[in-house]
Design goal:
This protein is mainly beta. It has three domains: 2-15 and 116-219, Immunoglobulin-like, CATH 2.60.40; 20-114, Immunoglobulins (Immunoglobulin-like, Sandwich), CATH 2.60.40.10; 224-332, Immunoglobulins (Immunoglobulin-like, Sandwich). Helices cover 4% and strands 51% of the residues. The chain is built from two helices and 26 strands. A hairpin with an 8-residue loop joins strand 3 (35-39) and strand 4 (48-54).
């Protein structure tokens, strides 16, 4: 299972875990001496899967185990979990497990066919234009989850993803209306704060011979708002956010507000600017024009809101007049 973390961690965004088809060997019933299983149920291509053995009738502590992979013995010794290296997507790995106990031997045969399936989360949340990063899961918003399937048969032939059947589950609840042939994406509501939402998909070919799947966990992050200088020549200076104190050095300065990870499913965030506590302007930008010839200061704050309770705030102080006059004094001796 994968987790989607807030911005500070994401990009740690983590390695994705795909799934594969697992074909059971002998049916388990009352006469079966032991059971062998592979974890995860659908391992990814070129990964290691863990082989485990359980028994309700054999004393496995006093038994021995032999394991062959594709008819080549890779282990002989006491009963324990064993790591099995798998091949590429669609390549069949055949595993033979023999348990010997009290002079008798019992065998299970397993076949594992890895399939490459990855779930990708696409949060429907805000970010500045040309922002190179990925937006985060928004509070009170939604996320588009897309299944990227690369199912292949034993000959390596890829199956058209549009012909596959997708079965979606959210928090252990099957979504029958969102499942079906070609339904490779769903829209999921964001989880509440400090909670998570688990999303999984099971994918099958129409004849049922190939099976894959994947899962991930969504965690909502607090929205933030950043303020940048809007330079008349350079444009918006996204490489440096304003914080603390901002000094106005010209007759007018323009600032730009960029809300991050606020829900956009019901419209763009509303941004309000407040100068000395009074509402001054609404929108992404504000232009500041100091008046008079002296120096002074003011407070500037802004609120970005979306939905009923999703809000992000920013506040800093403004100073004006002092920089320009001091520079002139140094240059011209005034």
């Amino acid at each position: 299972m994968r987790f989607i973390f807030p911005l500070a961690l994401t990009l740690l965004i983590l390695p994705s875990v795909a799934f594969a088809q697992f074909l059971g060997g002998d049916a388990l019933d009352e006469s079966t001496a032991f059971s062998a299983s592979i974890d995860p149920q659908y391992p990814a291509p070129y990964t290691n899967a863990t082989l485990s053995v359980l028994s309700a009738s054999l004393d496995l502590a006093n038994a021995t185990m032999k394991v062959s992979v594709n008819k080549k013995q890779i282990y002989s010794g006491s009963v324990q979990d064993l790591s099995i290296r798998l091949g590429g997507a669609g390549n069949m790995t055949k595993i033979d497990v023999t348990i010997s106990s009290s002079g008798k031997s019992y065998t299970q045969n397993l076949s594992v066919q890895p399939q490459d399936v990855v779930l990708v989360a696409e949060p429907l949340s805000s970010a500045p234009p040309l922002y190179p990063g990925k937006t985060l899961v928004p509070l009170e918003g939604s996320v588009r989850v897309v299944a990227m399937a690369n199912l292949r048969d034993t000959k390596g032939k890829a199956i058209d993803p549009a012909t596959l059947s997708y079965s979606w589950t959210v928090d252990e609840t099957s979504l029958s209306n969102a499942s079906g042939i070609g339904k490779s994406a769903i829209i999921v509501d964001s989880p509440f704060k400090y909670r998570s939402t688990d999303v999984s998909v099971s994918i099958k070919s129409q004849d049922g011979s190939l099976v894959g799947g994947d899962s991930l966990s969504l965690v909502a992050s607090d929205p933030v708002i950043r303020v940048y200088e809007n330079d008349p020549l350079l444009g918006i200076v996204f490489n440096r956010a304003i914080s603390g104190n901002y000094k106005i050095t010209s007759s007018e300065d323009s600032l730009y507000a960029a809300p991050f990870s606020m829900p956009t499913s019901s419209g763009l965030p509303v941004i309000q600017w407040f100068l000395n506590g009074d509402l001054a302007q609404t929108g992404k930008t504000i232009t500041l024009r100091p008046t008079g010839s002296g120096q002074g200061s003011a407070s500037l704050s802004l609120i970005a809101s979306s939905g009923e309770s999703t809000r992000a705030t920013q506040e800093f102080s403004l100073s004006f007049g002092a920089i320009q006059s001091s520079v002139l004094n140094k240059l011209f001796g005034l």
